[in-house]
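_Per-residue structure_
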Amino acid sequence: MQSTELLLKGVELMLFGMGFVFVFLSLLILSVRLMSAVVARCAPPAPPAAVSPAAPATGLPDADTLAAISIAVARHRARRP
């Protein structure tokens, strides 16, 4: 077997392998999208997110939360050498 024939066989095998991987990955993507569509159609709709009525309108934490954060920071700093 000459080196040219061997090289052509190698290229042929490479193209066959790359084609097989491409087809396999394409089928995998197609099946995942199909399963996603089936699950989205069969699954019940997600409940709407509940808004906490006690949430402050300014975006700042309330006094209890600030106190808890302050205590946690103080304890953390006290443990560090």
User: Anything to note?
Assistant: The chain has a mean pLDDT of 88.
